[in-house]
Design brief:
Layout: H1 2-18, H2 22-42, H3 46-67, E1 73-78, E2 86-88, E3 91-93, H4 95-106, E4 110-115, H5 121-124, E5 132-137, E6 147-149, E7 154-163, E8 171-175, E9 195-199, H6 202-210, E10 216-220, H7 221-230, H8 233-237, E11 239-254, H9 258-274, H10 276-284
Parallel strand pairs: 1-4, 1-5, 8-9, 8-10
Antiparallel strand pairs: 2-3, 5-11, 6-11, 7-10, 7-11
Helix pairs in contact: 1-2, 2-3
């Protein structure tokens, strides 16, 4: 029997060394300690067996599992933007969900997505709170401090909706964090020509537009499609949508996660080359 236990302990030792996931290795170490306590009992050392069981199996395993509870996960925080990343009937959907799910499997991490308010995105990124920002993210959408931008996976438009009857200078709503210098190829007019009013959220801008306090607002094409559903029907008929630039949708990664950013960029590049992303985009953006 001792020979059998010896081979089992040897096999467990090898299995621990071969594990890619730390949590799996910790669990196997707990099994190793449990089997060791059985061996101690068989050879006539019950006091050592009890000590090994109490400390090696219970206490040490618990401490390791607690320490690794946040490990092995890809923490993503996001705004809910239909077609990009959203909930429908209690289930997550969106082109970014497909991308992130496939990416997390490739790097052997469990995907964890949390929807938060726009204002919370930058305060939650980094450390143990979140690794990435998703949800129709593009450079210039949020302050860049503490963020590194991934390569683009989809090109959208920067658009302005305004009253078609408005003449002269317009009072246009803009998200407070918007960094217009980050945006490229402004085609119609520059932000300098706007009389800008800054808002903390898209919902707040839409409400002000519905109530006639501003003449229009600027948003990217992903959020503009959502905004159109929330504009009052009579006002919507009087509104005009104008393309004023382009945006490159991607993801933001905490600046301290250089390896994660490199892995993500490699995945996005390979997925673009293989046509995988184009297939996903055609499914969600028809």
């Amino acid at each position: 029997m001792l020979i059998l236990f010896t081979f089992l302990l040897l096999g467990l030792s090898v299995a621990v060394l071969l594990q890619d996931r730390l949590l799996n290795a910790v669990i196997l170490l707990g099994v190793f300690s449990l089997l060791s306590s059985v061996v101690y009992f068989v050879v006539g050392a019950p006091d050592v067996a009890v000590t090994e069981g109490a400390i090696g199996v219970a206490f040490v395993t618990f401490i390791y599992v607690l320490a690794l509870s946040d490990q092995g996960k890809l923490h993503v925080i996001a705004e809910e933007v239909p077609s990009f990343l959203f909930q429908e009937k209690g289930e997550l959907r969106g082109v970014e969900l497909e991308i992130l799910r496939d990416f997390s499997e490739e790097i052997d991490l469990d995907l964890e997505i949390e929807f938060v308010d726009h204002q919370e995105l930058t305060s939650l990124i980094g450390g143990r709170r979140a690794d990435m920002i998703a949800g129709a993210y593009f450079p210039g959408h949020l302050p860049s401090d503490g963020l590194s931008d991934s390569r683009s996976y989809h090109q959208g438009q920067l658009t302005k909706i305004h009253l078609s009857s408005q003449e002269g200078e317009e009072e246009i709503g803009v998200l407070r964090e918007f960094e217009s210098e980050e945006l490229t190829e402004l085609t119609e007019e520059d932000f300098a020509s706007f009389d800008s009013t800054y808002f903390n959220s898209l919902d707040e801008m839409i409400r002000e537009y519905n109530e006639g306090r501003i003449d229009g607002f600027v948003a990217d094409s992903g959020r503009m499609s959502t905004a159109l559903y929330r504009i009052n029907s009579p006002l919507r008929e009087e509104s005009e949508i104008v393309t004023i630039g382009k945006v490159e949708y991607g993801f933001a990664v905490s600046s301290g996660e250089e390896e994660l950013l490199e892995q993500l960029n490699d995945y996005l590049l390979e997925s673009a080359r293989s046509g995988k992303i184009d297939d996903l985009l055609s499914d969600y953006f028809r």
